[in-house]
Amino acid sequence: MTVDGDMRAATLQSWPDPDRRKFAVALFRPRDEAEGSAARLRHLGFAVASLPAVAVAAFAVATRLRHYDAVVATSANAFLAEAPVDRKSPLFVVGGRTARAAEQRGWRLGAPPAPDSLALADCIGRAIPPGAAVLYLAGRDRKPTIEAALGAVYELEVVVAYAAEARDGWSREETEALADCQAALHYSRRSAALAAALAAAAGAAEHFRAMTHVCLSPDVAQPLEALGAARIVTASSPEEEQLFTALVAAAAVFPSYSGFRI
Predict the structure, then answer these.
(1) Three-state DSSP string of 23-92
(2) Is-same-fold flag (5-53+169-252; 56-165)?
(3) Could you read off the pLDDT of 145-171 as tens digits, one per residue?
(4) Overall CATH class of domain 56-165
(5) DSSP string spanning 169-238?
(6) Would you give the distance in Å from CA 151 to the centre of its chain?
(7) 230, 210 in Cβ contact below 8 A?
């Protein structure tokens, strides 16, 4: 599905009131990550079902050094546990949420949060000289972007600080909540694929394919395209504000829906 330019340009503030509460949205993020997003969506008038595809587990962090020339993190989950590292080590992160989680642990940012991993690697390349000691507080399941960009240039140490474990299945109540949703928001390629698998295991594959899927990026949308999802919309840039704008535009082109049970 495509959304025309005028609708993509629609602001969140312009979303009309009458039918908002007839449009329910599924979130597949871990519950702690979904809380802020769900609150914003409800403020916009949408109903929200939180249906995590993963559960995040923190690991004890052990590092070779006490001080690093740079520390890297791409998720707020990297700071669920304390790291035995000098907080004077400059920190480089992806996203404002990661920055806030780090600052709550006493870290100082070496640069403003980057929008994605490639931009983060570029920022580090400009700020940190080659051969420097760099620590990457990583997730167990991750893309190789950071290692590929930094591994040949720096003394890169990768420490797994957390893992997003795939859930075995949704509860009956969660499956019923999915049945009431007309749309889903997808923040990562992995969680989109896991959500599709969970829906299939719950006997809700047909409904899942028929939903409107609003994705943070074309990469996130790929598992849904492979699945044959009927309606896929992609945010104009990989930011939550643009994801919500795409949701509002997508909701506006569909007819009103009947009530739901969430």
Answers:
(1) CEEEECCCHHHHHHHHHHHHHCCCEEEECCCEEEEECCCCCCCCCCCEEEECCHHHHCCCCCCCCCCCEE
(2) yes
(3) 999 999 999 999 999 999 988 999 999
(4) alpha beta
(5) ---HHHHHHHHT-SEEEE--HHHHHHHHHHHHHTT-HHHHHHSEEEESSHHHHHHHHHHT-SEEEE-SSS
(6) 25
(7) yes
Tokens of 216: 């943070």
Closest CA to 126 of 102, 153, 152: 153
| Domain ranges across the chain | 5-53+169-252, 56-165
Residue 183, strand partner residues? 25, 212
Q: Is the pTM of this model over 0.70?
A: no
Give the per-residue pLDDT at 254.
Answer: 60
- Structure-block tokens of residue 23: 């449009």
d(CA 5, CA 23): 22
- 236-249 exposure pattern, b = at least 16 Cβ within 10 A, e = fewer: eebbbebbbbbbbb
Q: How far apart are the C-alpha atoms of 68 and 140, rounded to whole Å?
A: 21
Classify 228 in phi/psi space as left (phi over 0), alpha (psi -120 to 50) or beta: left
**Amino acid (1-letter code) at residue 1:** M
d(CA 13, CA 21): 16
Provide the pLDDT confidence category of residue 7 given band limits of 50, 70 and 90.
Answer: very low
193 half-sphere exposure, CB direction, 13 A CA radius: 9
The tokens for 81 are 């546990």
Q: Give the CATH number of domain 5-53+169-252.
A: 3.40.50.10090
